[in-house]
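Why should sequence recovery work at all? Because a backbone constrains its sequence more than one might expect. Tight turns favour small or flexible residues, buried strands favour hydrophobic ones, and helices have their own preferences. The token representation captures these environments compactly. In the example below, the structure is given first.
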């Protein structure tokens, strides 16, 4: 038997400002996650949406622990991820704003299951929340996709360094 070797201490985390600065220069697609609540439709802007698996079709996104969306998502059984089109920067800003009724005067439709869907997006996916995993000061949700719709003609909205730059046309 050998003596156990001491475990080296975990390295310090990168500072919050440095970490955010790195990700400001990492372009991300923009989505609005919506759901139905007893108080009416709810939603928030997310740039953290990722594809996780194809079989079964799974995606994930995270939400900050202190956000209003976190409290809503603690109990939401299903969501719609609306992938915004290039001309929907104002929709992204609206759903990122605090203290406003994000659906006031906004055109949207409601699925038979109750979730709001935003028109004019490049695509949307309705999904059932499978897992909620606390990670640091955020909550990571994994979602099983159960319904999808896409508009191949629309260009996606991209977020980079606190702005929505236009993508170069395809070659």
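From this structural description, the recovered sequence reads:
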């Amino acid at each position: 038997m050998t003596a156990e070797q001491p475990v080296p201490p975990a390295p310090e985390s990168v500072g919050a400002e440095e970490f955010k600065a790195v990700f400001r220069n990492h372009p991300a697609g923009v989505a609005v996650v919506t759901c139905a609540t007893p108080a009416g439709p709810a939603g928030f802007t997310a740039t953290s949406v990722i594809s996780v698996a194809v079989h079964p079709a799974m995606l994930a996104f995270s939400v900050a622990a202190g956000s209003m969306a976190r409290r809503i998502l603690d109990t939401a059984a299903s969501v719609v991820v609306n992938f915004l089109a290039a001309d929907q920067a104002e929709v992204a800003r609206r759903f990122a704003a605090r203290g406003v009724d994000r659906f006031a005067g906004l055109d949207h439709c409601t699925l038979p299951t109750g979730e709001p869907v935003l028109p004019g997006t490049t695509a949307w996916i309705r999904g059932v929340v499978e897992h909620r995993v606390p990670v640091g000061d955020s909550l990571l949700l994994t979602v099983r996709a159960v319904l999808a719709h896409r508009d191949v003609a629309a260009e996606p909205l991209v977020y980079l360094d606190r702005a929505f730059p236009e993508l170069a046309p395809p070659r």
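A few observations help interpret the result. The CA atoms of residues 35 and 42 lie 5 Å apart.
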